[in-house]
Amino acid sequence: MINKVLVANRGEIAIRIFRACFELGIQTVAVYSQEDEGSVHRFKADESYRLSSDKKAVAAYLDIETIIQVAKESGADAIHPGYGFLSENTEFARRCEEEGIKFIGPSYEVLDMFGDKVKAREAAKKANIPLIPGSDGPVNSLEEVIAFGNEAGYPIIIKAALGGGGRGMRVVRSEDEVAEQYRMAVSEATKAFGSGEAYVEKYVEGPKHIEVQVIADEQGNTMHLWERDCSVQRRHQKVVEVAPTVNMSMELRNRICNSARDFLDSVDYANAGTVEFLLDGEDFYFIEVNPRVQVEHTITEQITGVDIVQTQIRIAAGETLEEIGLPKQEDLPLNGFAIQCRVTTEDPNNNFFPDTGKINTYRSPGGFGVRLDAGNGFQNTVVSPYFDSMIAKLITYGTTFEDTVAKMDRSLREYRVRGVKNNIPFLRNVVNHPVFQNGTANTVFIDNTPELFN
Ligand code: ADP
Protein backbone atom coordinates (compact mmCIF):
# COMPACT_ATOMS: atom_id res chain seq x y z
CA MET A 1 0.00 0.00 0.00
CA ILE A 2 1.12 3.52 -0.78
CA ASN A 3 -0.79 6.36 0.87
CA LYS A 4 1.20 9.49 0.11
CA VAL A 5 3.63 10.20 -2.71
CA LEU A 6 6.22 12.96 -2.76
CA VAL A 7 7.26 13.95 -6.26
CA ALA A 8 10.92 14.95 -6.37
CA ASN A 9 10.49 16.89 -9.59
CA ARG A 10 8.83 19.91 -11.15
CA GLY A 11 6.95 21.02 -14.25
CA GLU A 12 4.81 18.79 -16.40
CA ILE A 13 6.03 15.45 -15.10
CA ALA A 14 5.29 16.42 -11.49
CA ILE A 15 1.76 17.38 -12.54
CA ARG A 16 1.43 14.15 -14.55
CA ILE A 17 2.30 12.12 -11.45
CA PHE A 18 -0.02 14.11 -9.17
CA ARG A 19 -2.86 13.40 -11.58
CA ALA A 20 -2.15 9.67 -11.49
CA CYS A 21 -2.04 9.72 -7.67
CA PHE A 22 -5.30 11.64 -7.49
CA GLU A 23 -6.99 9.03 -9.66
CA LEU A 24 -5.65 6.28 -7.40
CA GLY A 25 -6.82 8.03 -4.22
CA ILE A 26 -3.25 8.69 -3.07
CA GLN A 27 -2.23 11.90 -1.26
CA THR A 28 0.43 14.07 -2.91
CA VAL A 29 3.35 16.22 -1.81
CA ALA A 30 5.11 18.77 -4.03
CA VAL A 31 8.53 20.27 -3.44
CA TYR A 32 9.85 23.40 -5.12
CA SER A 33 12.91 25.56 -5.12
CA GLN A 34 12.81 29.26 -4.34
CA GLU A 35 13.03 30.05 -8.08
CA ASP A 36 9.92 27.92 -8.63
CA GLU A 37 7.73 29.88 -6.25
CA GLY A 38 5.32 30.69 -9.10
CA SER A 39 5.63 27.31 -10.77
CA VAL A 40 2.31 25.59 -11.40
CA HIS A 41 3.29 22.15 -10.13
CA ARG A 42 3.35 23.33 -6.52
CA PHE A 43 -0.35 24.19 -6.68
CA LYS A 44 -1.34 20.80 -8.07
CA ALA A 45 -0.51 18.72 -4.99
CA ASP A 46 -2.31 18.35 -1.66
CA GLU A 47 0.72 19.74 0.16
CA SER A 48 3.68 21.71 -1.07
CA TYR A 49 7.00 22.54 0.54
CA ARG A 50 9.79 24.86 -0.41
CA LEU A 51 13.14 23.11 -0.34
CA SER A 52 14.62 25.27 2.37
CA SER A 53 18.27 24.64 1.80
CA ASP A 54 20.84 27.10 0.55
CA LYS A 55 20.87 25.23 -2.76
CA LYS A 56 19.53 27.05 -5.78
CA ALA A 57 17.31 26.02 -8.69
CA VAL A 58 18.43 22.65 -10.15
CA ALA A 59 20.70 22.02 -7.16
CA ALA A 60 17.70 22.21 -4.81
CA TYR A 61 16.01 19.36 -6.69
CA LEU A 62 19.24 17.36 -6.41
CA ASP A 63 19.52 17.82 -2.66
CA ILE A 64 18.93 14.25 -1.50
CA GLU A 65 18.90 14.81 2.25
CA THR A 66 16.55 17.80 2.18
CA ILE A 67 14.08 15.94 -0.02
CA ILE A 68 14.17 12.89 2.23
CA GLN A 69 13.60 15.10 5.23
CA VAL A 70 10.51 16.66 3.63
CA ALA A 71 9.23 13.19 2.80
CA LYS A 72 9.61 12.10 6.39
CA GLU A 73 8.09 15.23 7.89
CA SER A 74 5.12 15.16 5.55
CA GLY A 75 4.55 11.46 6.12
CA ALA A 76 5.09 10.46 2.49
CA ASP A 77 5.66 6.71 2.20
CA ALA A 78 6.90 6.80 -1.39
CA ILE A 79 8.86 9.10 -3.69
CA HIS A 80 8.40 9.35 -7.44
CA PRO A 81 11.51 10.88 -9.01
CA GLY A 82 10.03 11.60 -12.49
CA TYR A 83 12.74 11.94 -15.14
CA GLY A 84 16.02 13.86 -14.97
CA PHE A 85 17.12 15.20 -11.56
CA LEU A 86 17.46 12.26 -9.10
CA SER A 87 15.56 9.70 -11.18
CA GLU A 88 18.63 7.61 -11.99
CA ASN A 89 20.61 8.40 -8.86
CA THR A 90 21.73 5.21 -7.13
CA GLU A 91 22.54 6.99 -3.91
CA PHE A 92 19.08 8.54 -3.74
CA ALA A 93 17.34 5.20 -4.30
CA ARG A 94 19.53 3.65 -1.62
CA ARG A 95 18.84 6.44 0.89
CA CYS A 96 15.09 6.11 0.28
CA GLU A 97 15.28 2.41 1.06
CA GLU A 98 17.32 3.07 4.21
CA GLU A 99 14.67 5.48 5.44
CA GLY A 100 11.83 3.07 4.68
CA ILE A 101 10.50 5.24 1.86
CA LYS A 102 9.55 3.39 -1.34
CA PHE A 103 11.49 4.66 -4.37
CA ILE A 104 9.14 4.36 -7.36
CA GLY A 105 11.55 2.88 -9.87
CA PRO A 106 13.92 -0.04 -10.27
CA SER A 107 16.29 -1.25 -7.55
CA TYR A 108 19.49 0.69 -7.01
CA GLU A 109 21.54 -2.24 -8.29
CA VAL A 110 19.70 -1.94 -11.60
CA LEU A 111 20.07 1.86 -11.62
CA ASP A 112 23.77 1.41 -11.08
CA MET A 113 24.07 -0.97 -14.02
CA PHE A 114 22.17 1.27 -16.44
CA GLY A 115 23.51 4.63 -15.28
CA ASP A 116 26.85 3.65 -16.74
CA LYS A 117 26.72 2.99 -20.49
CA VAL A 118 29.78 0.76 -20.36
CA LYS A 119 28.16 -1.52 -17.78
CA ALA A 120 24.89 -1.42 -19.71
CA ARG A 121 26.67 -2.59 -22.86
CA GLU A 122 28.23 -5.45 -20.94
CA ALA A 123 24.83 -6.51 -19.60
CA ALA A 124 23.30 -6.37 -23.10
CA LYS A 125 26.17 -8.42 -24.47
CA LYS A 126 25.58 -11.08 -21.82
CA ALA A 127 21.92 -11.20 -22.79
CA ASN A 128 22.84 -11.63 -26.48
CA ILE A 129 21.30 -8.31 -27.52
CA PRO A 130 22.88 -7.05 -30.76
CA LEU A 131 25.45 -4.32 -30.04
CA ILE A 132 27.04 -1.71 -32.26
CA PRO A 133 30.70 -2.68 -32.70
CA GLY A 134 32.55 -0.78 -30.00
CA SER A 135 35.39 -0.83 -27.53
CA ASP A 136 35.39 -3.59 -24.95
CA GLY A 137 34.79 -1.47 -21.90
CA PRO A 138 36.10 2.07 -21.49
CA VAL A 139 38.96 3.53 -23.53
CA ASN A 140 41.85 4.81 -21.47
CA SER A 141 44.03 6.57 -24.00
CA LEU A 142 44.08 8.29 -27.35
CA GLU A 143 45.98 5.32 -28.78
CA GLU A 144 43.11 2.99 -27.93
CA VAL A 145 40.63 5.26 -29.72
CA ILE A 146 42.85 5.41 -32.80
CA ALA A 147 43.31 1.66 -32.77
CA PHE A 148 39.55 1.20 -32.66
CA GLY A 149 39.03 3.70 -35.49
CA ASN A 150 41.54 1.93 -37.69
CA GLU A 151 40.07 -1.45 -37.00
CA ALA A 152 36.34 -0.60 -37.25
CA GLY A 153 36.72 2.17 -39.85
CA TYR A 154 35.53 5.77 -39.56
CA PRO A 155 33.21 7.43 -38.63
CA ILE A 156 33.19 6.51 -34.95
CA ILE A 157 31.47 8.10 -31.97
CA ILE A 158 33.07 8.81 -28.59
CA LYS A 159 30.58 8.63 -25.73
CA ALA A 160 30.82 9.60 -22.08
CA ALA A 161 30.09 6.53 -19.94
CA LEU A 162 27.89 8.59 -17.64
CA GLY A 163 26.45 10.80 -20.40
CA GLY A 164 22.77 11.42 -21.02
CA GLY A 165 20.25 13.79 -22.53
CA GLY A 166 22.08 13.80 -25.84
CA ARG A 167 25.18 15.30 -24.28
CA GLY A 168 28.68 13.92 -24.05
CA MET A 169 28.92 12.48 -27.56
CA ARG A 170 31.38 13.35 -30.34
CA VAL A 171 31.40 12.02 -33.86
CA VAL A 172 34.84 11.52 -35.40
CA ARG A 173 35.04 11.27 -39.18
CA SER A 174 38.73 10.64 -39.70
CA GLU A 175 41.96 9.92 -37.88
CA ASP A 176 43.02 13.59 -38.15
CA GLU A 177 40.15 14.61 -35.88
CA VAL A 178 40.60 11.96 -33.20
CA ALA A 179 43.03 13.73 -30.90
CA GLU A 180 41.02 16.94 -30.71
CA GLN A 181 37.63 15.22 -30.35
CA TYR A 182 38.85 12.79 -27.72
CA ARG A 183 40.32 15.62 -25.68
CA MET A 184 37.05 17.59 -25.92
CA ALA A 185 34.94 14.53 -25.09
CA VAL A 186 36.90 13.76 -21.94
CA SER A 187 36.96 17.36 -20.79
CA GLU A 188 33.22 17.84 -21.43
CA ALA A 189 32.35 14.58 -19.71
CA THR A 190 34.44 15.47 -16.68
CA LYS A 191 32.71 18.83 -16.39
CA ALA A 192 29.18 17.64 -17.04
CA PHE A 193 29.10 14.19 -15.46
CA GLY A 194 31.97 14.24 -12.99
CA SER A 195 33.85 11.48 -14.81
CA GLY A 196 35.89 11.53 -17.98
CA GLU A 197 35.35 7.85 -18.63
CA ALA A 198 34.46 7.27 -22.27
CA TYR A 199 34.05 4.47 -24.79
CA VAL A 200 33.85 4.34 -28.55
CA GLU A 201 31.40 2.87 -30.99
CA LYS A 202 31.06 2.71 -34.72
CA TYR A 203 28.91 5.67 -35.84
CA VAL A 204 25.85 4.46 -37.71
CA GLU A 205 24.92 6.81 -40.59
CA GLY A 206 21.31 7.97 -40.61
CA PRO A 207 19.66 5.29 -38.44
CA LYS A 208 16.26 5.45 -36.85
CA HIS A 209 16.06 5.69 -33.06
CA ILE A 210 13.60 3.04 -31.92
CA GLU A 211 12.91 2.41 -28.26
CA VAL A 212 10.78 -0.16 -26.48
CA GLN A 213 8.70 0.58 -23.41
CA VAL A 214 8.95 -2.24 -20.90
CA ILE A 215 7.04 -2.66 -17.67
CA ALA A 216 7.80 -5.24 -14.99
CA ASP A 217 6.35 -6.03 -11.59
CA GLU A 218 8.33 -6.98 -8.49
CA GLN A 219 7.23 -10.60 -8.79
CA GLY A 220 9.19 -11.13 -12.02
CA ASN A 221 6.52 -10.60 -14.67
CA THR A 222 7.78 -8.49 -17.56
CA MET A 223 6.04 -7.23 -20.68
CA HIS A 224 6.66 -4.70 -23.41
CA LEU A 225 4.23 -1.96 -24.41
CA TRP A 226 5.39 -1.76 -28.04
CA GLU A 227 7.91 0.70 -29.40
CA ARG A 228 8.31 4.39 -30.16
CA ASP A 229 10.11 6.05 -33.05
CA CYS A 230 12.12 8.95 -31.61
CA SER A 231 14.23 9.66 -34.67
CA VAL A 232 13.27 13.32 -35.02
CA GLN A 233 16.10 14.80 -32.98
CA ARG A 234 18.18 17.91 -32.82
CA ARG A 235 21.73 17.42 -31.56
CA HIS A 236 20.83 13.92 -30.31
CA GLN A 237 17.85 15.27 -28.36
CA LYS A 238 14.32 14.19 -29.15
CA VAL A 239 11.93 16.77 -30.57
CA VAL A 240 8.98 14.81 -32.04
CA GLU A 241 8.09 11.21 -31.15
CA VAL A 242 5.78 8.74 -32.85
CA ALA A 243 4.18 5.46 -31.77
CA PRO A 244 4.16 2.95 -33.25
CA THR A 245 6.80 3.17 -36.01
CA VAL A 246 5.24 3.98 -39.37
CA ASN A 247 5.58 1.19 -41.97
CA MET A 248 7.34 -1.29 -39.67
CA SER A 249 6.46 -4.93 -40.28
CA MET A 250 4.92 -6.83 -37.38
CA GLU A 251 7.72 -9.35 -37.73
CA LEU A 252 10.44 -6.74 -37.10
CA ARG A 253 8.36 -5.02 -34.41
CA ASN A 254 7.95 -8.27 -32.51
CA ARG A 255 11.65 -9.06 -32.80
CA ILE A 256 12.71 -5.69 -31.35
CA CYS A 257 10.03 -5.57 -28.66
CA ASN A 258 10.60 -9.13 -27.51
CA SER A 259 14.36 -8.72 -27.29
CA ALA A 260 13.93 -5.58 -25.14
CA ARG A 261 11.50 -7.37 -22.85
CA ASP A 262 13.68 -10.47 -22.56
CA PHE A 263 16.73 -8.33 -21.81
CA LEU A 264 15.11 -6.49 -18.90
CA ASP A 265 13.58 -9.75 -17.69
CA SER A 266 17.07 -11.27 -17.61
CA VAL A 267 18.38 -8.58 -15.24
CA ASP A 268 15.40 -8.86 -12.84
CA TYR A 269 14.19 -5.45 -13.78
CA ALA A 270 11.21 -3.97 -11.92
CA ASN A 271 9.00 -0.97 -12.73
CA ALA A 272 9.03 1.02 -16.00
CA GLY A 273 12.06 1.16 -18.26
CA THR A 274 12.97 1.79 -21.86
CA VAL A 275 15.45 -0.07 -24.04
CA GLU A 276 16.82 2.13 -26.82
CA PHE A 277 18.06 0.86 -30.18
CA LEU A 278 19.37 2.25 -33.42
CA LEU A 279 17.66 0.71 -36.43
CA ASP A 280 19.65 0.46 -39.65
CA GLY A 281 17.51 -1.13 -42.33
CA GLU A 282 16.24 -4.31 -40.68
CA ASP A 283 19.13 -4.51 -38.22
CA PHE A 284 18.81 -3.11 -34.73
CA TYR A 285 21.53 -2.38 -32.20
CA PHE A 286 21.28 -1.69 -28.48
CA ILE A 287 22.34 1.78 -27.30
CA GLU A 288 21.10 2.16 -23.75
CA VAL A 289 18.45 1.59 -21.10
CA ASN A 290 16.60 4.45 -19.44
CA PRO A 291 15.54 3.11 -16.04
CA ARG A 292 12.73 5.62 -15.39
CA VAL A 293 9.58 7.08 -16.87
CA GLN A 294 10.40 8.94 -20.08
CA VAL A 295 9.19 12.26 -21.44
CA GLU A 296 7.55 10.42 -24.34
CA HIS A 297 5.71 7.75 -22.31
CA THR A 298 2.46 9.51 -23.26
CA ILE A 299 2.31 8.22 -26.84
CA THR A 300 2.63 4.63 -25.64
CA GLU A 301 -0.28 5.25 -23.28
CA GLN A 302 -2.39 6.50 -26.17
CA ILE A 303 -1.84 3.46 -28.40
CA THR A 304 -2.09 0.81 -25.66
CA GLY A 305 -4.55 2.33 -23.19
CA VAL A 306 -2.11 1.54 -20.35
CA ASP A 307 -1.54 4.32 -17.82
CA ILE A 308 2.21 3.98 -17.31
CA VAL A 309 2.49 6.29 -14.29
CA GLN A 310 -0.38 4.65 -12.42
CA THR A 311 1.18 1.29 -13.26
CA GLN A 312 4.55 2.43 -11.86
CA ILE A 313 2.92 3.41 -8.57
CA ARG A 314 0.91 0.21 -8.29
CA ILE A 315 3.97 -1.92 -9.05
CA ALA A 316 5.85 -0.08 -6.28
CA ALA A 317 2.92 -0.86 -3.99
CA GLY A 318 3.51 -4.55 -4.67
CA GLU A 319 0.79 -5.36 -7.18
CA THR A 320 1.40 -7.74 -10.07
CA LEU A 321 0.78 -6.78 -13.69
CA GLU A 322 -2.27 -9.03 -13.61
CA GLU A 323 -3.65 -7.45 -10.44
CA ILE A 324 -3.18 -4.03 -12.01
CA GLY A 325 -5.34 -5.25 -14.88
CA LEU A 326 -2.78 -5.11 -17.65
CA PRO A 327 -3.63 -7.28 -20.65
CA LYS A 328 -1.58 -10.37 -21.38
CA GLN A 329 1.31 -9.68 -23.75
CA GLU A 330 -0.44 -11.41 -26.66
CA ASP A 331 -3.60 -9.34 -26.07
CA LEU A 332 -1.83 -5.98 -25.78
CA PRO A 333 -3.67 -3.43 -27.94
CA LEU A 334 -1.89 -1.56 -30.72
CA ASN A 335 -4.46 1.08 -31.52
CA GLY A 336 -3.82 3.67 -34.20
CA PHE A 337 -1.02 6.23 -33.92
CA ALA A 338 0.13 8.92 -31.52
CA ILE A 339 2.55 11.81 -32.01
CA GLN A 340 4.14 13.98 -29.34
CA CYS A 341 5.71 17.40 -29.91
CA ARG A 342 7.92 18.93 -27.24
CA VAL A 343 6.88 22.58 -27.04
CA THR A 344 9.76 24.67 -25.76
CA THR A 345 10.58 28.33 -25.36
CA GLU A 346 13.57 27.89 -27.65
CA ASP A 347 14.06 30.24 -30.57
CA PRO A 348 14.68 28.21 -33.76
CA ASN A 349 16.01 31.29 -35.50
CA ASN A 350 18.60 31.93 -32.84
CA ASN A 351 20.22 28.52 -32.65
CA PHE A 352 17.43 27.32 -30.32
CA PHE A 353 18.56 29.61 -27.56
CA PRO A 354 16.00 29.40 -24.71
CA ASP A 355 13.91 32.53 -24.23
CA THR A 356 12.56 33.56 -20.82
CA GLY A 357 9.93 35.92 -19.44
CA LYS A 358 6.20 36.14 -18.90
CA ILE A 359 3.73 34.28 -21.08
CA ASN A 360 1.17 37.04 -21.62
CA THR A 361 -1.12 35.22 -24.03
CA TYR A 362 -1.76 31.53 -23.73
CA ARG A 363 -4.45 29.63 -25.60
CA SER A 364 -4.15 25.86 -25.60
CA PRO A 365 -5.40 23.52 -28.31
CA GLY A 366 -8.04 20.89 -27.66
CA GLY A 367 -10.70 18.80 -29.31
CA PHE A 368 -10.92 15.23 -30.58
CA GLY A 369 -7.64 13.34 -30.45
CA VAL A 370 -5.65 15.96 -28.51
CA ARG A 371 -3.87 15.59 -25.18
CA LEU A 372 -1.85 18.34 -23.56
CA ASP A 373 0.56 17.66 -20.68
CA ALA A 374 1.60 21.16 -19.69
CA GLY A 375 4.09 22.27 -17.08
CA ASN A 376 4.49 26.00 -16.97
CA GLY A 377 2.51 26.58 -20.12
CA PHE A 378 -0.21 28.77 -18.66
CA GLN A 379 -1.32 32.39 -18.90
CA ASN A 380 0.88 34.77 -16.88
CA THR A 381 3.44 32.19 -15.83
CA VAL A 382 7.03 33.30 -15.92
CA VAL A 383 9.49 31.08 -17.75
CA SER A 384 12.71 31.30 -15.78
CA PRO A 385 16.20 30.71 -17.11
CA TYR A 386 17.00 28.13 -14.42
CA PHE A 387 15.32 25.02 -15.78
CA ASP A 388 14.57 23.04 -18.90
CA SER A 389 12.82 25.10 -21.56
CA MET A 390 9.98 22.63 -22.27
CA ILE A 391 6.64 24.19 -21.32
CA ALA A 392 4.30 21.49 -22.60
CA LYS A 393 3.96 18.25 -24.49
CA LEU A 394 1.34 18.28 -27.19
CA ILE A 395 0.07 14.83 -28.12
CA THR A 396 -2.38 13.87 -30.83
CA TYR A 397 -3.77 10.46 -31.63
CA GLY A 398 -5.93 8.98 -34.35
CA THR A 399 -6.67 5.81 -36.28
CA THR A 400 -4.20 6.46 -39.09
CA PHE A 401 -0.84 8.22 -39.12
CA GLU A 402 -2.17 10.69 -41.69
CA ASP A 403 -5.09 11.65 -39.47
CA THR A 404 -2.80 11.95 -36.43
CA VAL A 405 -0.48 14.29 -38.37
CA ALA A 406 -3.47 16.38 -39.48
CA LYS A 407 -4.62 16.67 -35.87
CA MET A 408 -1.11 17.72 -34.81
CA ASP A 409 -0.89 20.38 -37.49
CA ARG A 410 -4.35 21.66 -36.56
CA SER A 411 -3.45 21.72 -32.82
CA LEU A 412 -0.17 23.53 -33.42
CA ARG A 413 -2.11 26.14 -35.39
CA GLU A 414 -4.57 26.58 -32.54
CA TYR A 415 -1.80 26.92 -29.96
CA ARG A 416 -1.02 30.53 -28.97
CA VAL A 417 1.97 31.32 -26.78
CA ARG A 418 2.97 34.98 -26.74
CA GLY A 419 5.47 36.90 -24.69
CA VAL A 420 8.22 34.32 -25.07
CA LYS A 421 9.68 32.93 -28.26
CA ASN A 422 8.86 29.29 -28.89
CA ASN A 423 9.32 26.43 -31.33
CA ILE A 424 5.67 26.02 -32.41
CA PRO A 425 6.26 27.29 -36.00
CA PHE A 426 9.28 25.01 -36.27
CA LEU A 427 7.25 22.00 -35.10
CA ARG A 428 4.66 22.78 -37.78
CA ASN A 429 7.40 22.72 -40.40
CA VAL A 430 8.52 19.31 -39.14
CA VAL A 431 5.09 17.67 -39.16
CA ASN A 432 4.28 19.14 -42.56
CA HIS A 433 7.46 17.89 -44.16
CA PRO A 434 7.04 14.98 -46.62
CA VAL A 435 9.92 13.04 -45.03
CA PHE A 436 8.18 13.12 -41.66
CA GLN A 437 4.85 12.32 -43.24
CA ASN A 438 6.09 9.26 -45.10
CA GLY A 439 7.65 7.90 -41.92
CA THR A 440 11.25 7.88 -43.12
CA ALA A 441 12.73 10.60 -40.89
CA ASN A 442 16.00 9.42 -39.34
CA THR A 443 18.18 10.86 -36.58
CA VAL A 444 19.84 13.42 -38.87
CA PHE A 445 16.62 14.57 -40.58
CA ILE A 446 16.53 17.94 -38.75
CA ASP A 447 20.25 18.59 -39.16
CA ASN A 448 20.06 17.85 -42.89
CA THR A 449 16.85 19.75 -43.67
CA PRO A 450 17.51 23.51 -43.68
CA GLU A 451 14.02 24.37 -44.97
CA LEU A 452 12.59 23.39 -41.57
CA PHE A 453 14.04 26.66 -40.29
CA ASN A 454 12.12 28.86 -42.73
P1 ADP B 1 21.78 9.86 -24.39
O1 ADP B 1 21.96 8.98 -23.22
O2 ADP B 1 22.54 11.13 -24.28
O3 ADP B 1 20.35 10.05 -24.79
P2 ADP B 1 22.07 7.81 -26.45
O4 ADP B 1 23.11 6.80 -26.35
O5 ADP B 1 20.68 7.41 -26.10
O6 ADP B 1 22.50 9.09 -25.61
O7 ADP B 1 22.06 8.41 -27.92
C1 ADP B 1 21.27 9.52 -28.28
C2 ADP B 1 21.24 9.69 -29.78
O8 ADP B 1 22.58 9.84 -30.30
C3 ADP B 1 20.68 8.51 -30.55
O9 ADP B 1 19.28 8.54 -30.59
C4 ADP B 1 21.32 8.71 -31.90
O10 ADP B 1 20.67 9.72 -32.62
C5 ADP B 1 22.70 9.20 -31.55
N1 ADP B 1 23.65 8.07 -31.46
C6 ADP B 1 24.09 7.45 -30.36
N2 ADP B 1 24.96 6.46 -30.65
C7 ADP B 1 25.11 6.45 -31.99
C8 ADP B 1 25.86 5.66 -32.92
N3 ADP B 1 26.68 4.69 -32.53
N4 ADP B 1 25.71 5.94 -34.24
C9 ADP B 1 24.89 6.93 -34.67
N5 ADP B 1 24.17 7.71 -33.84
C10 ADP B 1 24.26 7.49 -32.52
From TrEMBL:
Primary role: Catalyzes a 2-step reaction, involving the ATP-dependent carboxylation of the covalently attached biotin in the first step and the transfer of the carboxyl group to pyruvate in the second.
Portion held of the full protein: 1 to 454 of 1142
Active site per the UniProt annotation: R292
Limits of the ATP-grasp domain: 121-317
Organism in which the protein naturally occurs: Aerococcus agrisoli
Residues noted as binding ATP in the record, renumbered to the chain: K117, E201, H236
Domain named Biotin carboxylation: residues: 1-451
Protein name: Pyruvate carboxylase
